[in-house]
From TrEMBL:
Naturally occurring in which organism (per UniProt): Pyxicephalus adspersus
InterPro entries (UniProt xref): GPCR_Rhodpsn, GPCR_Rhodpsn_7TM, Olfact_rcpt, Olfactory_GPCR
CDD domains according to UniProt: 7tmA_OR
Presence of the UniProt keyword Membrane in the record: yes
Lineage: Eukaryota, Metazoa, Chordata, Craniata, Vertebrata
Keyword Transmembrane: yes
Protein name, UniProt field: G-protein coupled receptors family 1 profile domain-containing protein
């Protein structure tokens, strides 16, 4: 699974770098998404593979904090990069004549820097508060990796501040900004598509954003199933978390390559 994830996403990155036909804003953000998928799957799956090989499930405090930090930051970055991709699709469909004027190199670079910066900065308060937890009910985490929610479940110290931060920051950074912006983008996209008179025109417009929409639905469904389920049912939560951390990064390059003529054409050109 990890090899498939690594190979698929690295292929996307290499194609975007080498093929000048893919030097567009859409594929620039797709390459960023592939980097996130490679990083997030490495952060989680390397520990699982290591534990399986060595039969040692222990983790040191430094590795514990590092995995928490990178797992949380990369999860946040993925949501924001998908939001940027939604904005790119909005401009491409709703303002096609101004597309390259709006989505120029400067805009794309600023969006990418913003997404990466927010992803790495937003997790710092969590890391600080986690480091202050001094008492746990058990030294076993009922999860396949060091994630925030399972750790909060076994904390004996006062974590009211951490819970409040999780709620407020979750609402602002993971619902209001990424979800609402993506939803607004697609509302305008759908309205614009419905105004197109020809069936072929509507089909072409929908085709340009179908891959991104598929990934968005897949990701948000797993996040909702993962974090809305009550805390006393960690078994299903672990399953959805594993799906989100391992299966989604593996499926992303498959979805984009199977539903994208440009990527398939670029791959054929590289094979010649």
């Amino acid at each position: 699974m990890y090899i498939i994830t690594l190979g698929g996403n690295m292929t996307i990155c290499i194609l975007v770098i080498l093929d000048h036909h893919l030097h567009t804003p859409m594929y620039f953000f797709l390459a960023n998404l592939s980097i996130v998928d490679i990083s997030s799957s490495t952060v989680t799956l390397h520990r699982i593979l290591g534990n399986f090989i060595t039969q040692d499930n222990t983790v040191g405090i430094f590795a514990f904090m590092m995995q928490c930090y990178f797992f949380g930051s990369l999860s946040g970055h993925e949501l924001f990069i998908l939001t940027a991709m939604g904005f790119d699709r909005y401009v491409a469909i709703c303002k096609p004549l101004k597309y390259y004027l709006i989505m120029n190199y400067r805009t794309c670079g600023m969006l990418a820097v913003f997404c990466w910066s927010v992803g790495f900065i937003q997790i710092i308060p969590y890391s600080v508060l986690l480091a202050k937890i001094s008492c746990f009910s058990t030294n076993e985490i009922n999860h396949f990796c060091c994630d925030l929610i399972p750790i909060m479940e076994i904390a004996c110290s006062d974590i009211s501040t951490l819970k409040t931060l999780t709620f407020i920051q979750g609402i602002i950074l993971f619902i209001i900004i990424p979800f609402c912006f993506t939803l607004i983008s697609y509302v305008f996209i759908i309205i614009t598509i419905l105004k197109i008179s020809s069936n072929s025109g509507r089909h072409k417009a929908f085709y340009t954003c179908s891959s991104h929409l598929t990934v968005i639905i897949l990701l948000y469904m797993t996040l909702i199933l993962q974090y809305v389920i009550p805390s006393n049912r960690l078994g299903p939560t672990k399953l959805f978390s594993l799906f989100n951390a391992a299966i989604v990064p593996m499926l992303n390059p498959i979805i984009y390559s199977l539903k994208n003529k440009d990527v398939k054409s670029s791959f054929r050109r590289r094979l010649r």
